[in-house]
Amino acid sequence: MNKQEIIVIGAGAAGVMAAITAARNHAKVTILEHTQRFGKKLLATGNGRCNLTNLSQLPEHYRSDNHKFPMQVISQFNEKQTLQFFEEIGIYTKQKLGYVYPYSEQASAVLDLLKLELDRLHINIIYSVSIKEIKKKQRFQILTDTVTYTCDKVIMAMGSKAAPKTGSDGSGYALAKQIGHRIITPLPALVQLRCSGDYFKSLAGVRCEARLRLMIDKKVVVEDKGELQLTDYGISGIPTFQISRYAIRAVEKGKAVSVYIDFIPDKNEKEIISFLYSQIRHDPKKKMEDILIGLFNKKLVPVLLNQANLSGKSLGKELKEVQINRLIQKIKAFEVKVTSYNSFEQAQVCSGGVDTRELFPDTLESLKMPGIYLAGELLDVDGICGGYNLQWAWSSGYVAGKSASMS
């Protein structure tokens, strides 16, 4: 019996997983990679520590226009199977609050052991390959500037447009479109948001625990809590990244987009008012700017007071109830209007991509050109921070690799 010949396009996380899975199923596998090395983006994940997956896998951790699709794929190769796979190739793991890392906390170790597994399975990687077209005759023909490669099946795992320095140049979208797929406009996700407000320059560098509530056309869409980072142009940090997908797609549609920041998420309004009045009673001559420095970064205090139309020099005892309430409103629901967002260069992933309604969810085979399978960030699936985008890569790569080699 002749071995299935499979070409995987793209040597990122999804492509490597697809190649290993197919080769374990006795296929002859070659990877075509357009850069000069593989796994460059993997090296940057988890700030170089490689957040392999997360022990909590729920539908709300993934975003797609086809809402049920991500978990239909994840369920075929879940986080437990992922951990088993990595243990098989020699990676012992540890977890922190559900976030799973290699025990060494080195992404380079993950890359090294994946390469050893590729070598063990005799999977060849051909680098610096620029693909122009995919044709199907009796077999698939993959046309480049110099060589035409032939195979029985193709797995497209070419990434998105996010973090182009790692090799994600968006070329996969053009190839997918060429074979008939619809592309949902790719936009940055897990990225910083740009906001209006002349006070941001004075807030640059401030970090604080906060809850963010995203409102689009005056309706609450999503909330998240964590360490907010204020920049000279707007907001950053993990809670900003988590809501950025929805904010950005709304900005692109011309909708009114605001983020309401709760600067003391663990206390309610009554508790904060009680603290303020206790400080006023303790020292009636205490200025408002001095009362607030026990609560906030010193850079944030004058901005909150100014936005509440209060002077930092005014004495706490002189404030009227309406003024206190106005200050509380700014503390618990500080509105910033989102006007734009940072580029693909700063984005960790993309939202958008190949419309997943044009694939079989149980195999990831193309409905437009049977025999081609698609995986990873090329598809319209993106996860929140915390190992979810890598889990999507492992799961979709596994499903594509298994399906292509078994059919």
From TrEMBL:
Pfam families in alphabetical order: HI0933_like (PF03486), HI0933_like_1st (PF22780)
Residue ranges of coiled coil: none
UniProt KW keywords: FAD, Flavoprotein
Source organism superkingdom: Bacteria
Residue stretches making up the RsdA/BaiN/AoA(So)-like Rossmann fold-like domain: 5-402
Residue ranges of every copy of the RsdA/BaiN/AoA(So)-like insert domain listed in the record: 188-349
Cofactor: FAD
Statement: the UniProt record of this protein carries the keyword Flavoprotein: yes
Record's keyword annotation contains Flavoprotein: yes
Protein name (Swiss-Prot/TrEMBL): NAD(P)/FAD-dependent oxidoreductase
Organism for this UniProt entry: Candidatus Galacturonatibacter soehngenii
